[in-house]
Q: What sequence folds into this?
């Protein structure tokens, strides 16, 4: 099976190719970790809050994977606040420029 690579912008501003599998594993781990920590904080997060986060995070994850599948030249970077990957460069025809 061929390995699919994704472009990542490092914190130093350098583009690197990383296996998509690693991005998927990382994203799933961060989502699960956020849910785990929310569950450990009774009284701060309700069950509804956690369910909404999980739905939203999985929706964002699926959209990110669709974007990558539709445009293999998409460049991702790690968001310093959410610790999740975001799109920083995409095909100009898509009119998408996230920072």
A:
């Amino acid at each position: 099976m061929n390995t699919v690579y994704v472009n990542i912008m490092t914190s130093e501003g350098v583009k690197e190719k990383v296996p998509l599998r690693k991005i998927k594993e990382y994203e799933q781990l961060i989502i699960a970790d956020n849910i785990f920590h929310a569950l450990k904080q009774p009284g701060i997060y309700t069950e509804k809050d956690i369910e909404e986060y999980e739905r939203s995070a999985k929706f964002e994850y699926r959209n990110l994977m669709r974007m990558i599948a539709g445009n293999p030249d998409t460049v991702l970077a790690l968001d310093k606040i959410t610790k999740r990957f975001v799109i920083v460069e995409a095909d100009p025809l898509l009119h998408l420029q996230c920072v």
The two ends are 33 Å apart (CA to CA). The chain has two helices and four strands.
